[in-house]
Amino acid sequence: MFDMMKMMGKVKEMQSKMKEAQDKLEYIHETGEAGAGMVKATVNGKKEVISIEIDEALMSKEDKETVQDLTVAAINNALEKADISAKEEIRKSTEGIMPNIPGMDLGNMF
């Protein structure tokens, strides 16, 4: 028989674990590179840009467009990595709380 009180307890526990996992996302840092490492971007698990490093060799007016393109590529690369790390953190934090329901991926909620 379905135990509603037990299920509600699991939902509350999951909410608590999800909040805890979300708070940890700020501390996940991933760095993406472009142009063989000439441009590096670091983001956190909340998809906020933390820093951008640009090699001095790219710092000329002629290379402005290249620097812009490489910066976008590095940020997108870092965001992709941070997304994977964030989903893994959410998965670890909620593991074992709710039954494994096919098609229900809590990591995709954020």
Automatic annotation (TrEMBL):
Keywords: Coiled coil, Cytoplasm, DNA-binding. The keyword Cytoplasm applies. One of its GO terms (molecular function) is DNA binding. It is found in: Cytoplasm, Nucleoid. Its main location: cytoplasm. It comes from the Bacteria. One of its GO terms (cellular component) is bacterial nucleoid. InterPro entries: YbaB-like_sf, YbaB/EbfC. Residues 4-31 form a coiled coil. Binds to DNA and alters its conformation. May be involved in regulation of gene expression, nucleoid organization and DNA protection. PANTHER family: NUCLEOID-ASSOCIATED PROTEIN YBAB (PTHR33449). HAMAP family: DNA_YbaB_EbfC. Homodimer. Belongs to the YbaB/EbfC family. This is Nucleoid-associated protein AWN68_12805. The lineage of its organism: Bacteria, Pseudomonadati, Bacteroidota, Cytophagia, Cytophagales.
